[in-house]
Amino acid sequence: MSHGAVPNRLADGARGGLAPIARRLAALGVTANAVTLVGGGLTIVGALFLALAMPQLALIVLILGTLADTLDGQIAKASGGGTPFGAFLDSTVDRIADASLFVGTALLAVGSAQPALLWWALIALVASFLVPYVRAKAESLGLAAAVGPAPREARIVIFLIGLAAWALLGLDGLFIAAVLAVALLASITAAVRVAHVGRQLQAKGR
What amino acid positions are annotated as catalytic residues? Predict the structure, then answer.
């Protein structure tokens, strides 16, 4: 599976590193669905800190939320495999988390009078919803659409790197650049997926 701008080795290594923790949590009776909900809740809280221009707290909480988002799948595997409801819940919470990130960024932009950041946040919000929608619609037609440079993992990594530059180094310009990059790459990914689906349909004569 391609992770877009995130090297596959790095993404797979991160999951592998969390596997022992996931197995321990599963042995303690912690469910994947519970971790999914915790991860979503942490992301909402982190987005609130971001909206309040508190980048350090936002970074810490969002990293914890991202780890939870990665752990839930590992816990499901450790528990013998996921369920259809678990997959549905995970996808739904992911959309809520994505919306929280960019709504929080938009509120930050309004509060700090940064119109450019506001526009990039809104574009990133819309494009980040289009990317999984195009894939889901394609798969409902029996087609594949897991292509493009910025699947969700890549977008989150870019966003967090930009936030870390602001929180740790005071480089808020790099955070704005990261939001811009997410907006552009997500838009490109959505367009690439639409084109990919179109080629498949044309090849099938549909």
Answer: 94
